[in-house]
């Protein structure tokens, strides 16, 4: 067979070469088994040697060679089992171990030697300790990287159950201890690693990436040595620390190969128990400082930290022993690693510190000083880098790090206690600061935590300043209105978490918030100041409820109402007329509920001033009139003089609306003020039926002036409903004659509307009104109380 040359380049070539080799393996394996079945041991061994000649090839790629190796090793298991079975029958073959060494080619010779040698160990034909040492040393004879790797892997596979381990194992096999197994695996591991590294330097330099890919495909062969070490039951933490790990780390450092160093340290972290790692943290972390600059140190350190975090969280593990100062170890070693190793970029350093931070928060949740210490070092790292060199990836990693304590503590009051948090947050770019601010606000709202003191309120609002105020580094482009609205609404919700149980302190908390929000610019005021107004109104109710315990409550209420007035004027100055009018109405109602007439009257006056000076749109005017009438109807603290002034003001204002339909509706609406309105002196409803009828007559007069027939009839029906309402409320000024007259007027007007959708709606409205009247008529029959509809003629 051909054994020299370059591996076939194409996939088809590789498949053909592999198929041919496997076919020859199967043929020779068949001959081997036939001879063994006939007890022709040497002939069987010779056929095995011929089969193993296929392992000398240089034409197969690592992947194809692996497939060939699997076929060969399966067949060799038959030979090994045959030798063990023959020994069980009493057929001893002491010379076979020496005879196979006369095989002509070294690769088949060593495969056979391993097969026979491990069979001898199993049947206790020779010294296990000597045979193992002999095998591992003889394998040095194959220095071709690919062949040598698979040969030594076969050695490891065959000796898996034969390695000296515990005392019971020693009784079974007679000699050797766990120290011999450690030495055996160390030797094999060292040689395999050298062969694996040597693969990198074979062939042309332009095939470097291809060789690296092939090496990565074979890495598990080297890692199997470490798995075997971890399987040894006789290794405890002390043995691992003194005998196992040092040999591995020496090999890692000496090979100076980035692929090997990275994989082997990852493998060490993965296969050995966490209890062992806790005893050897300094060794592993100091080894990281000696690694090649192309090694992804971040990946290694983060992997180790994640394992230890899971270990500490596992209730069955017992946690981190108190005598191991794990935070001190990691903070010192990782800091030195970041400062001294050239290959650790800022983003990698932040990722490692983020994992250390996670560890500190998991193992020492009450030690805020540990978190501050790490954040302080992070700040130092970021400040040491020129601003121009800090890219978006680094900022994202910093953002991720700053979210760690938020998620861990789930309490923003703890976050604001961290002295370095705000300065570190300031190093983020505008968008990342804003994202973190949103994250903080959402956490505050989700947890329901309240911020009780002015100082804490100022510190928290300072953290989320990028949401509240315009920033110097804020982009000048167009802002997405939907995102902006969502962010500002979130800030508005924050206001309702600024709550102190002490009334006087709550006032100072709100004053602090006002100082920040009024600097936010006109585009933010509409979202942030209204919640502040309602928070102040809530404080008004608290002061009023506690008035018996506070002699100065009235003066304090006056200060709060001045505070509310200032905020609403700021909103009005920003051009938000309709919003400020609504807030003045709410403020007036708030003052009314605590019986402060002068302040309530002043707020109503301010609402009317905004209406007259700044609201010009017809729909907005009608909406404002509706709100003003509804407000005045609810108020009960106004004296007769003030109430009369405001009633009249509403009526006059309604009469000045531009559109006749709006005039009609507003004047009819004002009738409620003369019926349901209350004054402070009597605290009873006015029930002024004469003024009610005057308003409704005025409304009908205005409706008559409408030029459009459909609008006119619609207004008549609406006024009729007002009349019916007051009639049912037993208003003596509303008589049957008035109702009949209006119904006849509507009946006379309906036929002139024509046939269209609008006319159909008007007819339906009138029919429903008449149905109500008929229903009331039926209820009136035989009834002596309430409004009497019996005499009302509908047609």
TrEMBL record:
Q: Is Transport tagged as a keyword?
A: yes
* Coiled-coil annotated spans: none
What biological process terms from GO does the record include?
A: intracellular protein transport; retrograde transport, endosome to Golgi
Q: Which SUPFAM superfamilies match?
A: ARM repeat
- Keywords of this protein's UniProt record, alphabetized? Cytoplasm, Golgi apparatus, Membrane, Protein transport, Transport
Q: Looking at the record's lineage, which domain of life comes first?
A: Eukaryota
Looking up Gene3D superfamilies in the UniProt record yields:
Vacuolar protein sorting-associated protein 35, helical subcomplex Vps35-C (1.25.40.660)
The membrane topology of this protein is: Peripheral membrane protein
Q: What is its main location?
A: cytoplasm
Q: Where does it localize?
A: Cytoplasm; Golgi apparatus membrane; Membrane
Name the InterPro entries on file: ARM-type_fold, Vps35, Vps35_C
Q: Which GO terms describe its cellular component?
A: cytosol; Golgi membrane; late endosome; retromer, cargo-selective complex
Q: What does this protein do?
A: Plays a role in vesicular protein sorting.
PANTHER family with a match to the protein in the record: VACUOLAR PROTEIN SORTING-ASSOCIATED PROTEIN 35 (PTHR11099:SF0), VACUOLAR SORTING PROTEIN 35 (PTHR11099)
Protein family membership? Belongs to the VPS35 family.
Q: What is this protein called?
A: Vacuolar protein sorting-associated protein 35
What organism does the UniProt record list as the source?
Oopsacas minuta
């Amino acid at each position: 067979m051909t054994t020299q040359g370059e591996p076939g380049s194409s996939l088809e070539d590789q498949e053909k070469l592999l198929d041919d080799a496997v076919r020859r393996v199967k043929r020779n394996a068949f001959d081997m088994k036939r001879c063994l079945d006939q007890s022709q041991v040497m002939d069987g061994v010779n056929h095995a040697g011929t089969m193993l000649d296929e392992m000398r090839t240089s034409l197969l790629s690592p992947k194809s060679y692996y497939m060939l190796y699997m076929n060969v090793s399966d067949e060799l298991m038959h030979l090994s089992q045959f030798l063990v079975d023959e020994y069980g029958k009493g057929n001893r073959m002491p010379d076979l171990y020496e005879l196979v060494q006369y095989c002509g080619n070294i690769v088949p010779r060593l495969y056979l030697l391993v097969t026979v040698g491990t069979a001898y160990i199993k049947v206790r034909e020779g010294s296990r300790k000597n045979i193992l040492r002999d095998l591992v040393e003889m394998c040095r004879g194959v220095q071709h990287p690919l062949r040598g790797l698979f040969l030594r892997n076969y050695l490891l596979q065959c000796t898996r159950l034969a390695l000296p381990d515990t005392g019971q194992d020693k009784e079974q096999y007679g000699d050797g201890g766990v120290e011999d197994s450690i030495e055996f695996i160390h030797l094999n591991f060292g040689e395999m690693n050298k062969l694996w590294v040597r693969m990198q330097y074979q062939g042309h330099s332009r095939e470097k990436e291809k060789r690296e890919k092939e090496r990565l495909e074979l890495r598990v062969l080297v890692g199997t040595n470490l798995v075997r070490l971890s399987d040894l039951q006789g290794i405890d933490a002390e043995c691992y620390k003194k005998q196992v790990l040092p040999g591995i780390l020496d090999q890692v450092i000496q090979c100076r190969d980035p692929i090997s160093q990275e994989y082997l340290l990852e493998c060490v972290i993965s296969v050995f128990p966490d209890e062992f790692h806790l005893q050897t943290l300094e060794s592993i972390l100091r080894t990281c400082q000696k690694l090649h600059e192309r090694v992804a140190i971040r990946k290694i350190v983060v992997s180790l930290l994640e394992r230890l975090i899971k270990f500490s969280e596992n209730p069955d593990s017992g946690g981190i022993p108190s005598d191991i100062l794990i935070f001190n170890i990691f903070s010192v070693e990782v800091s030195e690693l970041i400062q001294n190793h050239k290959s650790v970029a800022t983003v990698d350093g932040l990722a490692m510190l983020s994992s250390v931070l996670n560890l500190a928060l998991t193992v020492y949740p009450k030690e805020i000083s540990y978190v501050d210490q790490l954040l302080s070092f992070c700040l130092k790292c970021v400040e040491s880098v020129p601003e121009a060199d800090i890219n978006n990836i680094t900022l994202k990693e910093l953002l991720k790090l700053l979210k760690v304590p938020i998620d861990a503590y789930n309490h923003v009051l703890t976050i604001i206690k961290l002295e370095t948090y705000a300065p570190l947050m300031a190093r983020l770019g505008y968008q990342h600061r804003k994202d973190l601010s949103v994250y903080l606000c959402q956490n505050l709202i989700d947890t329901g935590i309240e911020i009780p003191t002015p100082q804490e309120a100022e510190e928290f609002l300072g953290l989320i300043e990028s949401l509240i105020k315009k920033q110097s580094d804020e982009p000048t482009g167009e802002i997405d209105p939907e995102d902006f609205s969502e962010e500002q609404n979130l800030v508005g919700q924050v206001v309702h978490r600024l709550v102190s149980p002490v009334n006087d302190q709550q006032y100072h908390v709100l004053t602090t918030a006002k100082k920040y929000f009024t600097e936010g610019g006109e585009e933010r005021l509409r979202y942030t100041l209204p919640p502040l107004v309602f928070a102040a109104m809530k404080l008004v109710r608290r002061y009023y409820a506690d008035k018996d315990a506070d002699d100065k409550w009235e003066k304090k209420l006056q200060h709060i109402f001045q505070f509310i007035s200032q905020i609403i004027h700021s909103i009005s100055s920003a051009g938000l007329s309709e919003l400020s009018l609504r807030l003045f109405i709410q403020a007036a109602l708030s003052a009314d509920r605590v019986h402060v007439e002068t302040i309530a009257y002043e707020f109503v006056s301010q609402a009317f001033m905004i209406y007259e000076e700044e609201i010009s749109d017809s729909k907005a005017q009608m909406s404002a009139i509706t709100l003003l009438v509804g407000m005045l109807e609810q108020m009960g603290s106004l004296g007769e003089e003030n109430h009369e002034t405001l009633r009249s003001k509403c009526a006059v204002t309604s009469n000045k609306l531009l559109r006749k339909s709006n005039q009609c509706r507003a004047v009819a609406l004002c009738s409620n003020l003369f019926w349901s309105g209350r004054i402070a002196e009597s605290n009873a409803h006015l029930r002024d039926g004469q003024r009610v009828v005057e308003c409704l007559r005025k409304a009908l007069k205005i409706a008559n002036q409408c030029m459009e027939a459909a609008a006119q009839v619609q207004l008549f029906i609406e006024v009729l409903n007002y009349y019916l309402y007051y009639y049912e409320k037993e208003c003596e000024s509303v008589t049957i004659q008035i109702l009949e007259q209006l119904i006849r007027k509507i009946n006379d007007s309906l036929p002139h509307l024509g046939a269209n959708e609008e006319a159909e709606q008007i007819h339906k409205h009138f029919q429903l009104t008449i149905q109500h009247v008929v229903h009331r008529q039926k209820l009136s029959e035989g009834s002596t109380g309430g409004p009497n509809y019996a005499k009302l003629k509908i047609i």
